Amino acid sequence: MSSAASDGVDRSQLPPLRPVPRFTFPKVRKTTLANGLGVWTARHDEVPLTEFLLVLRQGAASDPVGHEGLSAFTTDMLDEGTGSLSALDVSEQLARIGAQLGVDVGADAILVGVSSLTRFAERALHLMADVVVRPSLREDDFERVRRQRLNRLVQLRDMPGAIAERVFMQLLFGDAPYGHTPLGREASIKSITIDDIRGFHQRAFRPGDATLIAVGDSDHEALCRLAESAFGNWIGAQPSGVRDGAALPTPARLNIIARPGAPQSELRIGHVAVSRSTPDYHALVAANMVLGGQYVSRVNLNLRAEKGITYGVRTAFEFRRFPGPFVLSVSVDRAATALAISESMKEISDIRDARPISAPELAIGIAALTRGYAKNFETCDQLARAVAQLALFNLPEDFYSEFVPRIEALSPDEVTQAAARHLDPTRLTTLVVGDVDSTSQEFGRLELGTPELLSPDSI
Amino acid sequence: MLLHEAHGCPIVAVNIWYHVGSKNETPGHTGFAHLFEHLMFEGSEHHDSGFFQPLQAAGASLNGSTNADRTNYWEVVPASALELALWMESDRMGFLLPALTEQKFLNQRDVVLNERRQNYENRPYGLASMAMLATLFPDDHPYHWTTIGEIEDLKTARVDEAHEFFRRYYHPANASIALAGDFDSESALRLVRAYFEGIAAGPAVDRVARSASLDADRNIYLEDRVELPRLYVAWLTPAMFAAGDAELDLATDLLAHGKTSRLYRRLVYQDRIATDVSASQSSREMSSFVQMSATAAPGHTLPELDRAIAEEVARLSDEGPTDAEIERGRVQAETQFVQRLQTVGGFGGKSDQLNAYNTYLRRPDYFTEDLGRYARVTHDSLRRTVKHYLRDGRRVTMSIVPRGRLDLGMPDSVPVAVS
Q: Does the ipTM surpass 0.90?
C-alpha cells in the first residue's frame, strides 16, 4: 500500500470504526379484544402510511397428509369475495384506495397484511377483516383458483431452483409436517374439496389464536379502536392443536434429478437442524454469517471469489417452531458440480473442528449483524414483520433491543461449539438438479454412495 | 452532489450513479458495462482487496447494478461509518486501475458467465428479453443487446479494454453522488469535498442519441425448455419523462396490474385462457417500449391470447379509460411514491431517486413534478397516446413455445436466434 495520496486525505489506512449508538426497538403496546384477538401496535411517524398484519399461528405444517397445500389454497381463496362482493369487487375496492392486500403462507404461520396511506387505513382494515372473517368460499371461485394453482405447479417444473426446494424438503422431512412447501403437490391439490377449504378456514382463522399487528403514524388507542370496529365481532371455533411430527426419513446421501442440457446445476446440501427456541439461536446466527450468510462468508469466498464457479452461494438455518432445515443453496457451472459439492461439504465440516471460527472472522460476522442492525427497522413493513416474529415465537419483549449485546458477547469458541453441535457432516444430504454424469470419477471420489435418481414428478 | 437529511433512523445512504450503461457499448463488445461493475468490487489502489469486507465489517449493506442507461452503486451504513463509505467509493473512483489485474478480470468474467447461465440460459423464458430487444431495435442500435451481453463478447473481452472503459466513464464529470439519512449537511459536504474533489474530472462523455422506429409488424418465435407457451407483444414508445411516458405507465397498469385490470379480468378471470398477464412501459433514456405478456393455460394456444389482448388494447384506444381507472391509477401512483420514499438507500430509495432525476434531467428536485405528471393524465391524453403508439403496423409479436410445439405459437412467425 502506498501512503497518503495526492488528494490530501489519508489513504494509507481506512477510517477507524466508530461506535454505533445503541439500538432500541420502538415500544410495542398490547391490548386483547374481548374475542381474544391480540392487538399489538408500534408507532412509526416517518411517512403517512399504516400497515396491518394479521398473524395466524397455523401454516403449511398444519396441512393434513394427502392435503398438502390446503393452508395456502385456503388463504388464496380469502380475497375471492366476501358478503355481496365478488373477487373483482374486492380488488376494485382495494385498488380505489391504493391499498395492497398481501398474504404470506409459511411453514408455521399465515400472515395477511394490508398497507395503505393512513387516510385510507380504516377502509383498508375493514376490507381485510371482511375477507379474513367472512370470505365467501364459493364453489365456482374455488375451481378457478384450483386450476390456477395447478398451472402454477406445472410452471414450477421449468424452474430448477423451485424443483430443488420442493424435492429437498421432501427428502429431509418425508411425510412429516415440514416435508412439503406451502404450494403442495398436484395430487393433493386435486383431491382438496371446497368443504376442506371451509373446514380449514374454520379451524385456523380464529381470533383467540391470532394477533393483529399495526404500525403507522397513529397512537395505540386509535389503532385499537380501528381493530375493534373491524374485528370486534369475529367469533372463532375452539382451538385445535398443530399436527404432531411423523418420523423423519433417512434420505440417500446423494440424490439427482436429471435435467438434460441444463447449463447450470442447482444444488441443495443440508439436514434437519434446530428449532427457533434453541438456546443456541444467537450463536448459530453468528456461525452462519461466517459459514455462508454474507458475501464474505467462507463458502462464497471459496466458490465465487476464488473459483468463479457460481454467481453466489448461501447457507441458512431455518428457525421454526419445530426443528427446521439447515440448507446450503447454490447454482453452479455444470462442469464444476462435483467440485462444488466437495468444497461445500468440506467447509461445513471444517468449521466444526479442522478450521474453527477465528476471532477476526467472528468480528466481521458480528459487525455485519450488529452495526447495521438499525436499518432492518426502517419501514412500516419491516417493523410489522419484526413484531410478528415476537408474537409468533413468543419472544421476549426486549428481543430486538437485546439482540446486539447478545451477539456482541459471543466468543469464537462458543460459536464454533454451537456449529459443531448442530451441523453434522455425516448426515448431510445432497440434491443435484442438473445435467451430470454421476458415474464419473469425480462423483465417485465424493464417496457418497450410490446416487438415488429421482424424477421431479415422483414428489 | 446531492444531500438529503432524514433523521428517523441512525443510518446514511451513499449512492453514486455513473452515466454509463450497456447503451455505451458497441457490437462485439456487449456486456462490458456490467462486467465492469463487477470489477469495481475487487479492490482499488489503497485498498487492494475485496470491496465488501471493510464495509460489511462496519455494518453496511451494499450493492450495485447496471442497466442500459446507467450504473449505480450504493452503501447503507450506520451514521458513524459515513466517512468509511466515502473513502471506499472515492478510492475506486479515483484509484481503481493500479489494482485492476488480469487475474481479477478473468475471474469476474467467469462469475458473469455463471450469472448469465443462472439468470438467463437456465431460467424458463430467460432468453425472451434478448430476442425482444434484438427485434425492437436494429443491429447497430445501443438497445439492441441486453445488459448481460453476448457469450462470445464476454469470452473475448480483455483487461486493457477495462482500463480504457474506466478512463472514459468513471470520473466525476460522469458521476452523481447523493447522500440521504442521518447526517449534518455541512460536515457531510466537507467530507465529500475532501475525498472527491481531488479526483480529476475526466473527459466529457457525449450523450448517446439514437432514435428507433418500426414501420412494419414483426412476428417471431423461440423454442425453450418450458411447459406452457407464452406470448409477448411490444411496441416502441416515448422515452423516459417524455410526453406520453406517464400515460403509458398508467395504461399498462390499468391493463395488467392487479385482478381489477382489464387483461387479468378478461384472460385469467373470465375466459381462463391464460395463467398470468403482465404489461409495463419500460422507460429508457433514448426510447422506451411497452411490453405485454401472457402465458397460455394448459390446452390453450397463443392465437387465442393474441386475439383477446388485441381486442382489449383496441377497446382502450377507442373508448379510453373510465374515470374510476384514472382515479385508481393516481392513488396507486401516490401510494407507490410514498412507499419508495420510506427508505433512504438501496435500489429505488430516496438517494437513488435523487440521482435518477439528476442524471437524466439535471433536476434533482423533480419529485413533485414527477408525481404531477401522473396527476395531469386525462381520459383523452391516455386514449390518444395508446391509439398512437400501441397500434398495428409497428408491433413485435413473439411466441415462446415448448420445444417441438410450434403449433401452439402464432402462425407465420419466423425463428429468432439468440446468443
A: no
